[in-house]
Fold this protein.
Amino acid sequence: MSNAALARIATAQATLGAQYLKAGRYRLEVQSIRTKDGFKGLSAIAEVKVMTSERTQANTEPTRPGLVASYVENASDAKKNGGGRFKAFLMALAGAEEHEVSQDFIAKFTEANQAGAFLLVDCDVFPKTLPEKEGRPGKVIEGYRWSNVSLTDAELASIESKRVAAKLPQLADALA
């Protein structure tokens, strides 16, 4: 295992299971983005820290600020379009257009340089009803609507200082 992987594991927040965002409106700070080839196929995973949260559903308390949650998409099944949803997340995070998102672009965010670490992204999480399929009843899942955050100079300086503390390259170098 690489030193970067060991360091990431050592500094990660230990959890018994993944925390997921509940319905609400959020400002999130990306902690890390990675891919994983596991027993359910290839997954894209972003660990995000809740900076602010706002209730949007009367009967659901949003995930509280300070918690680190996982945003996970299965990219193996093209019919389910998890890869497309994760691409939309990366586009919102980076303020990128779809034609800019290549394999090299994605690698800058998922590999050692972690270009997305400490960037901010806004997200609306909402209940989404899936229809009945092949005799199985429909179910309600979380839908995600991502939007770009235009960073202030103070936010950018804060991100750069967090990247230095985490021994990550400056944003411009990570994106080069």
Observations:
- Residues 17-175 form one domain.
- The mean pLDDT is 89.
- The two ends are 25 Å apart (CA to CA).
